[in-house]
Amino acid sequence: MLALPDRSTRQGRRDATLFATLYDTGARVQELADLAVRDIRLQRPAMVSLTGKGRKTRHVPQDGSTITLLAAYLAEHRLDESGHDDYPVFFNQHRARLSRGGVAWIIRKYQAHRC
């Protein structure tokens, strides 16, 4: 499923980055939906900070391929510029934070392609 998004489109790059981040962090869908720009550190040691149930935060180290995708995605959307720390990393066409349902819809869309 990680190879299904069409990376030549903006939406496909978002979906590929979302899948890689979800897979490599082991995040719950809600943790991914709540991810803000300030929660990503691209410099070594690269990591993603996830806040889960009970407001507990865990710091998940990331490998080169996911960090490369995240860096390119943040740059494409200009989220790597100052003043964007509180912006959601993953958002819908209205630039609103993706909901759990939105993430589930994206996953189902690609599952349908596999069948």
From TrEMBL:
InterPro entries: DNA_brk_join_enz, Integrase-like_cat_sf, Integrase_catalytic. It comes from the Bacteria. Keywords: DNA recombination. The keyword Heme does not apply. Residues 1-115 form the Tyr recombinase domain. Gene3D superfamilies: Intergrase catalytic core (1.10.443.10). This is Tyr recombinase domain-containing protein. The lineage of its organism: Bacteria, Bacillati, Actinomycetota, Actinomycetes, Streptosporangiales.
